[in-house]
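haha ok so turns out i had the wrong file open the whole time. this is the CORRECT one, sorry everyone. sequence first:
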Amino acid sequence: MQVRSRQRGASLIEVMVAVLIFSVGLIGVAGLLIMATRSNHAAYLRTQVTFLAHSMADRMRANPMGVWSASYNSDSYPIASTQQCDTGCTPSQLAAHDQGMWSRQLSTFLPDATASIKCTNGGAGYAPSADQMAMRPPYGGSCSMKITWSERAVSGKSASGSEIPTQTFAWEFQP
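then structure:
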């Protein structure tokens, strides 16, 4: 006597359900990896912005006459400047050289970067003489720096048609 099993095809359905559940899990893991990569890249860009801002502040700190004469002020970085200071420069030429170097760094390290620097000596109460500048007095005013960049390398609109967000780093400092 032969006994017939009533469970025909049940194991195939169980395997298909397991594959479906496994596939949904893999899609979730892939989404997490994409989000982690985007967050890591955004953190990298913010680190670059901080480095670039401090780099320019250090350049300005090394050229106080350029800061006092407002040679670093600009609303439209990156600036195309080819000023060379291999054999020495005046403070305004050094500022132009610094602006060109910083502009190239902005363009290299940040997607769609724009920046502005505005220094005011309001509240300083005096303008230093050349002799005082040789002693490197503190700058009596303040400077504001604003750097704007795109979070993703492509500007404009995303594939879904929404605007790609831009980020802004704003900083008030005394060089």
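The longest helix spans residues 10-61.
again sry for the mixup
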